[in-house]
TrEMBL record, chains A, B:
Stored PROSITE patterns: HTH_ARSR_1, HTH_ARSR_2
CDD domains reported for this sequence: HTH_ARSR
Organism domain of life: Bacteria
Name this protein carries in UniProt: HTH arsR-type domain-containing protein
Domain HTH arsR-type: 27-124
Species in which this protein is naturally found: Nocardioides furvisabuli
NCBIfam families assigned: HTH_metalloreg (NF033788)
Keyword Transcription regulation: yes
Keywords: DNA-binding, Transcription, Transcription regulation
Length: 133, 133
DNA sequence: CATCGACATCGATCAATGTCGATGTCCGTC
DNA sequence: GACGGACATCGACATTGATCGATGTCGATG
């Protein structure tokens, strides 16, 4: 949806409602629908590992051929999982010559992290605490 | 619990491999299998809202009857979702008289958050950066 | 231009999941 | 002890999702 997030403009993808400390107040159905696709994307062993492999790979990027050896899955299956991660806004896709490189999107990582932890960088302490508005 | 995690004893439930900064090094298949059930549990709009409702409810706890009015879903369905959250180790279940109260488990919240936020201590993971650094 | 290698798409299959109504269990109350 | 309310379990159904082999697309190379 095309609303303007108040503070915290991390440059989120489409449905990325960032700054949603889950415990502060009930997440709205719309917010939930915005975050759930990202959670669904990583709620799979292969995809969580793929994301971690990309994140921890040299330069923070990896091509499909780098990732394939880590799995017993077929190449189409890996390609499918990468597409799911990409469609969810977690991975950036970049074609260079014959190879396709995937790079994690820091905004997405931060958005996910902010669900469970007191907001890390922006609005430090008061966010999670008893901050009454 | 059978195995002893190195540092960081947050008192995790069964498969809770904590302290797994996703970007530090590739998460192992075993670690992924440990965390994925929790992610699967919250990768649903109803369940994510349920967790948020419990977390933000007065006292950090809520009975089923408190939660039902927020949804268009049937009572068995809500009960089912709460069971999924409970089985994943995210919610604690406590029966008091006629009512059943659910309470979020802080260890689980922390474990999930630690997946995406740079670990407090070592090597600020240049991979994720572009942000903090 | 023919070929090869890297990656994506397609179509099919089988398992997992969200949802419901009906029913069961337990507790408090009359 | 019978009733009613709160919550869980059961069985059924439709939908989603993970996986594969086969095939398509595109760039590099000879």
């Amino acid at each position: 949806m095309s609303k303007s997030p108040a503070a915290c403009d991390v440059g989120a993808p489409e449905g990325l409602e960032c700054c949603v400390p889950l415990a502060r107040e009930p997440i709205t159905p719309a917010q939930a629908d915005g975050v759930v696709p990202m959670l669904k994307a990583i709620a799979d062993p292969a995809r969580l590992r793929l994301l971690s492999l990309v994140l921890s790979h040299e330069g923070g990027e990896a091509c499909v051929c780098d990732l394939l050896p880590y799995f017993d899955l077929s190449q189409p299956t890996i390609s499918h999982h990468l597409k799911v991660l990409h469609d969810a806004g977690l991975l950036h896709r970049e074609k260079r010559g014959t190879w396709v490189y995937y790079i994690a999107r820091p905004e997405a990582m931060r958005a996910l992290g902010s669900l469970f932890t007191a907001a890390p960088s922006p609005v430090p302490s008061a966010a999670l605490a008893g901050a009454g508005a």
